[in-house]
């Protein structure tokens, strides 16, 4: 088991990529704190996965609220005795022509998708420094690498996550803290549920592998980056995109 005895936090862990990552981390032997704003689903997932050997707890955390993030890290350390891993995954989609995008919508996307990732890293780093090391994985996107129409705030946030990941990797390498990101292509999760069939078919056609990704395929990349199998990988932005950006 890749993560035997490790202590992890997954933000946005109640749904989609986060949920599958929680499932895989638990299967790999980690104790996990699920952080989300969807309390009913998060609590249910924690109850389903916890066993005598594996602690799985849920905490309400809005990643735009620094006090809640600080409390989340404190709770993980109190429950597990340490923090080895955080997957900063909570995020929202945003689609609007840029000339019609309100400043409020712009700010909300940046607040959750970029500021939230920074704040989680800030507080996780404090715990990891005390623990002698750790592994931070941020959720970016193909849209941190390439542009797309009508996604200005999302693309700007994910581009920020890509380079924030590099900056933190360089800054904390000497503390034995690795910082990486996963950059998914389009993945079949509730985030895509608003899209009509024609749009989904178009998105499928943009992936050379000829399909959308599955959340468990991103989860596998995250648990790899979290594990000692990735011990010489830091500052990487791992594209898991069915070839989307290779064209
Ligand atoms: N699905 C895709 O195609 C795709 C592609 C690239 C990147 N991503 C990224 O993957 C991550 C997960 O997306 P998903 O597709 O699993 O979506 P999802 O909607 O299934 O899950 C997102 C989770 O984040 C939670 N969340 C939203 N706002 C939050 C907040 N303020 N604080 C805490 N939790 C919050 C939601 O409650 C939900 O449980 C996001 O960062 C997203 O940008 C998704």
Ligands in the structure? nicotinamide-adenine-dinucleotide
By CATH, the architecture is named: 3-Layer(aba) Sandwich
CATH topology: Rossmann fold
> What is the alpha-carbon Rg in Å?
17 Å
In whole angstroms, the N-to-C terminal distance is 35 Å
- Structural class given helices, strands, pairing? alpha/beta
- Beta percentage is 15-25%
Largest sheet: 7 strands, parallel
Describe the strand arrangement of the main beta sheet, using strand numbers: 3-2-1-4-5-6-7
Poorly predicted ranges: none
- The H-level CATH homologous superfamily, spelled out, is NAD(P)-binding Rossmann-like Domain
The first-level CATH class name: Alpha Beta
- Mean pLDDT metric: 98
Element order, helices and strands?
Answer: EHEHEHEHEHEHHE
Helix content: 40-55%
- Strand segment tally: 7
Tally of helical runs: 7
Which outline best applies?
Answer: globular
Q: How many domains make up the coordinates?
A: 1
């Amino acid at each position: 088991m890749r993560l035997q005895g490790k202590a992890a936090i997954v933000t946005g862990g109640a749904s989609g990529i986060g949920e599958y990552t929680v499932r895989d981390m638990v299967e790999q032997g980690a104790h996990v704190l699920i952080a989300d704003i969807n309390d009913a689903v998060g609590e249910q997932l924690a109850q389903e996965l916890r066993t005598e050997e594996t602690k799985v707890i849920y905490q309400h955390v809005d990643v735009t609220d620094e006090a809640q993030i600080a409390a989340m890290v404190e709770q993980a350390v109190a429950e597990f005795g340490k923090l080895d891993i955080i997957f900063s995954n909570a995020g929202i989609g945003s689609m609007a022509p840029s000339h019609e995008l309100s400043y409020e919508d712009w700010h909300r996307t940046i607040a959750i998708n970029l500021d939230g990732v920074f704040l989680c890293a800030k507080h996780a780093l404090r715990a990891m420094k005390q623990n002698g090391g750790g592994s931070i994985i941020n959720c970016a996107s193909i849209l941190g690498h390439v542009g797309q129409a009508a996604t200005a705030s999302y693309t700007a946030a994910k581009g920020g996550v890509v380079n924030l990941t590099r900056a933190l990797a360089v800054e904390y390498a000497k503390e034995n803290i690795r910082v990486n990101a996963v950059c998914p292509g389009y993945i079949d999760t509730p985030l895509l549920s608003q899209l009509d069939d024609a749009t989904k078919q178009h998105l499928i056609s943009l992936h050379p592998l000829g399909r959308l990704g599955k959340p468990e395929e991103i989860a596998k990349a995250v648990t790899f980056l979290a594990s000692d199998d990735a011990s010489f990988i830091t500052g990487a932005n791992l594209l898991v995109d069915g070839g989307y950006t290779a064209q």
